[in-house]
Amino acid sequence: NEYTHKPHVAFLASPGMGHITPLYELAVSLVTQHSFQVSFLVITTASTLAQSEYLNSNPHPELHIVDLPPADMSGLVSDDMTAVARLCIIVQESIRPLRSIISGFKGPKLKALVIDIFCTGVFEVCNDLSIPVYSFFTASAVLFTFSLYLPVLDREVEGEFMDLPGPVKVPGCNPIRIHDLPDVQARNRNMDHDYQWYLFHVSRLNMATGIFVNTWDDLEPVSLKAVKHEPFFLNVPTPPVYPIGPLIKQIDPVVTKYEKEIIAWLDKQPKDSVLYVAFGSGGTLTSEQLAELAWGLELSQQRFIMVVRKPNDNVAAAFFNVGCEPDDPRTYLPDGFMERTKGVGLVVSSWAPQVAMLSHPSTGAFLSYCGWNSTLESVKHGVPMIGWPMYAEQRMNATILSNEVGVAVKMPVVGDKGETVVVQRDEIKRVVQMVMEGEEGTNIRSRVKELEASGRATLSRGGSSYETLARVAESWKLG
Ligand code: UDP
């Protein structure tokens, strides 16, 4: 694609659809609504099929995809490494040539570089090159405020956070139950590489010129109020915070035969009748839990589409190989399950066109792991949720969605001591029926429809998220 004279910003996202999607959608908004051109830097190491299909569907001539050269990772990462540490090392190695890549850009000098939370290693180079860096925090505002507070907690708390006597109270925010803290934050923090990496990056957040968050007031009023107008959140100078959500994948290309079959199946089902079940780009259930889930769905007698992966005891086992070859789910689902549920249920292996499914009129609810992008996709399409958190900050998300926002019912996957418990088939059947047919389902459905309308309004001209981005874009043009 040819560069033009339009104002130019660059983006850098760490691997994983959860980071790439919101940054890419922000880039699209800048190109289509605010007359920018964007260079979108892609870390090609650990790139997945899902990622390249999504980026290659790029229909915007002013959005230039720039592949970073693959980094030499020999001896640096291994399959038994934890996900965040591995991701951070890949980013660290991949951005080594950043200075020469940015300096070699054709087109006008960059007005800004937008990064996600795991790319804070760019600050020094951009400082040298006088390019302001904006961070896009792609998860919830609840996790954002907690993350700003984490360096304080880290200094003040001795021992593990999970042994704290009461909830974590981030100033101005609702208390967070200890059980809802992300696993890596709660346990073994001095030993845990994921925790140390996360702390490193969030400690550097205030080096950014501004921070975008993928949320809006009606969804997370309390956390946003705490940071939005506070130049000194927690007595530390904090960059301005810009809520610009909900930015979700606009186009979900349904191209393969396999994807078309899923949508064709949905086309044949009655309105709001199908429960969509999925555990995200990385989530995997244990064999025992997967069997109970399958039985629970069967007993509920509801229509469903379930995305399954080979069971694994590591909850985020699939993070680095999503979108790979589908396998045969018969080998790990209960005997005869697929035959008995034929017509009522559809089992999809590995990866599904989620946004296309959530926007389909037949989809009535989403049994969701509560990843933030998935949550926004569900809310934006008016689909109520059953919260089944798996890893990262998903427990926090599930709690706010059910207790504060009122768009989800939680599946009881967390035990009294914060441990993950195996939910039994009868319980699954009960919750599924309650949401698909019961009064609780009606309530959360009407609440999510209100938020769907609010999400549309905030992104339209005159709406808060639209105008917030417009103001930043204007300041870049003048800068
Ligand atoms: N996704 C998808 N198909 C799948 C699983 C995930 O299209 O089978 C997409 C989903 O729509 C979302 C992203 O991948 O945009 C996952 O991001 P999220 O923040 O929900 O969770 P993560 O998987 O990154 O923890």
Automatic annotation (TrEMBL):
Keywords: Glycosyltransferase, Transferase. One of its GO terms (molecular function) is UDP-glycosyltransferase activity. Pfam families: UDPGT. InterPro entries: UDP_glucos_trans (IPR002213). Belongs to the UDP-glycosyltransferase family. PANTHER family: GLYCOSYLTRANSFERASE (PTHR48046:SF4), UDP-GLYCOSYLTRANSFERASE 72E1 (PTHR48046). This is UDP-glucuronosyl/UDP-glucosyltransferase. It comes from Artemisia annua (Sweet wormwood).
